[in-house]
Amino acid sequence: MKAIAIILMTGVFSVSAQAKLPAPSDAAKAAAAEAAAKTAHAGKVDAYLLCKYQDKTAAHYRKSGKAGKDDKPVATAPCVDPGPYKPATAAAPAAPAPAAPAKKS
């Protein structure tokens, strides 16, 4: 009986202790977007390096003489270097709102 009461009390207190989190600020959203952009660029760089090493390995395999008569090079897309990471620039400032027409007195 005591165990059931303890479980119920723990449930009541744990539900009441949960609070609603505040909405993320604009700065937090911008930081998250920047982190996502960095991660995406890192993925592109990794894919580029993998492509280069695969080409190097395939060339070495063909050069070593281990390739059979029927092993012909397969046409693949060229490796594209994504270049250095460029952080997103700040958005241009918004144009000022048009002034309200002056009231005639």
Detailed description of the structure:
The protein is 51% helix and 0% strand. The longest helix has 38 residues, at 26-63. With 105 residues, the protein is mainly alpha-helical. The radius of gyration is 30 Å and the shape is flat.
- The beta-strand count equals 0
Roughly how many Å is the radius of gyration?
30 Å
Instruction: Supply the number of helical segments.
Output: 2
Calculate the terminal CA-CA distance, rounded to whole Å.
Answer: 81 Å
The low-confidence parts are none
Biggest pleated-sheet summary: none
Strand-pairing-aware structural class: mainly alpha
Which descriptor suits the 3D outline? flat
Helicity level, as a percent range? 40-55%
Order of helices and strands: HH
Strand percentage: under 5%
pLDDT averaged residue by residue: 81
Keywords:
2 helices, 105 residues, mainly alpha
SSE arrangement:
Elements: H1 2-17, H2 26-63
What is the gist of this entry?
This protein is 51% helix and 0% strand.
